[in-house]
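User: My collaborator and I are trying to settle a disagreement about how two of our proteins should look. Neither of us wants to argue from intuition anymore, so we agreed to look at predicted structures for both before our next call. Could you fold the first one, then the second, and keep them clearly separated?

Assistant: That sounds like a sensible way to settle it. I'll keep them separate. The first protein:
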Amino acid sequence: MVGSMFAGVSGLKAHQTRMDVLGNNIANVNTWGYKSQLAHIQDAAYRTRTAGSANRGNQGGGNNTSQVGYGANVGYISVNYTTGNWNPTGWGGDCMINGPAFFAVTKNLGNANGTTQPDGAAGDDPVAGGSIGGVNADGTLQSNDVTITAADGIQLSRVGIFGLDEQGYLVDANGYYVLNYKGNAIKARDNYTYDAITIQKDGTITAVIQTPSQDAKKVETLGQLGVVSIQNVNGLEHDEGYYYDIGPNAGVTTLNQTTSASGDILGGYLEMSNTDLANEISYMITTQRGYQANTKIITVTDEMLQELVNMKR
């Protein structure tokens, strides 16, 4: 009877964790680029009451194993990485990836492989020797793909809310530097005023500029966004504020230009949360009922123990 109470308590904990996950999904139903999660409940340890045995011929037939379980645990929390719906914003600096890839951003310029400007001038914050594998000191690629790891200090994002900061760097909504396909921070030309930004399907960033001499406005290419492909997307680790870290089980993580496999970049759109409210509410109902049933197990077990105590008055 005490075992049934412990099983009920483990069921309460498992269903509470599942409700926590569901609550987080619903809280982020309007969060850009959010990927919904699902907690998977599995049965816990078992105690064997009767060991199984094979057929013994003339000595008798075989026996099946007899076991008693000890409740449930949350075994795994999976993430649904399918692309969310498109939301038009009307701002050219907003963009999303219509595919499985991620944008590459960094909080510290020292984690970038350098800085590129439209006129080809070197930036002021290159990393000595380059910290990202596969990039030469002059910024040229050693191979088609740039391999990055967690040690490079680069984070991944599905939210392309981009704009220029006061120093001309392309940054996201939280001020993180956006990297191009070579691992460089993207920087506008010094002393130029930029009136508009447009992002093409291949990640090319163009802007309408006014030159210092106040000549006629013209369109200039600032750079090309890089996208990150993950061998095992479920090996990523969530971080706050739209970001993901490269986990130890992510496998090969490469930074490159957009391809048909990584998906096109859609300018003027942001990716909506892929939380399905219909699913979340149905899961919430079954989770609530499961929680209630486990409380009944604890209540009934308590009543049985009370009867046992009352046998001697």
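The second protein, kept apart from the first:
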Amino acid sequence: MIISAAKERTRRAALLQDYRSVFLVGCGACATACKVGGEEEIFATQEWLEELGHDVTGSAILDEACHIMRAAREVRRFRDQIAEADVLLVLACGAGAQSISECSDKPVLTGVDPLFLGNVRRFGQYEEKCSLCGDCILNETGGICPVTTCAKGLLNGPCGGMDDGCCEVDPERECAWVRIAKRLEDLQQGVFSRVVEPKDWSRKFKPGQHSIERTPGSRK
């Protein structure tokens, strides 16, 4: 899930100061879970904008704002309300904002700041566990990613600053490689003996694109 935080209202107000009318777009997936772009946040933003003197021409909450085809469909469905707006304010991650931008000739602004790809610990608590590096070594590290969970992204064990099992960068946090060693010990697996070469970041294509081949009989 993409974890995002709402931009401060002062920043949003500055972004919108040259626009009179606004159409709001939220996301029913990640942004709703993070409480930055769901129904409640869209309603609160509309009230706030109207207090500032803006006209809100309408709003839409997309099931998944990052889905370009669905975004295009929703833009068409609300085309009359969007046509009345000077700008679209998207309360979703950067991928969602770019989906809307690709489907509309109106200026598109984002009202949130994407932070990281996160796992849900519990409601309102998220942890970054994957850096989408394109060259996963989880099979050899007990399912714990050193690229992400090690403050230095070390691939071959802890740094010299590790002290009593704790991270040099954040002494309140257990060293990622200590966690990996404990996990492998619990699994009765040894720490892999090979030396891991520096991360080949060329495998992380930018911009990333990937197509999944469908098997016969699979649903389109």
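Some points you might bring to the call about the second protein. The two ends are 24 Å apart (CA to CA). The first helix runs from residue 9 to 16.
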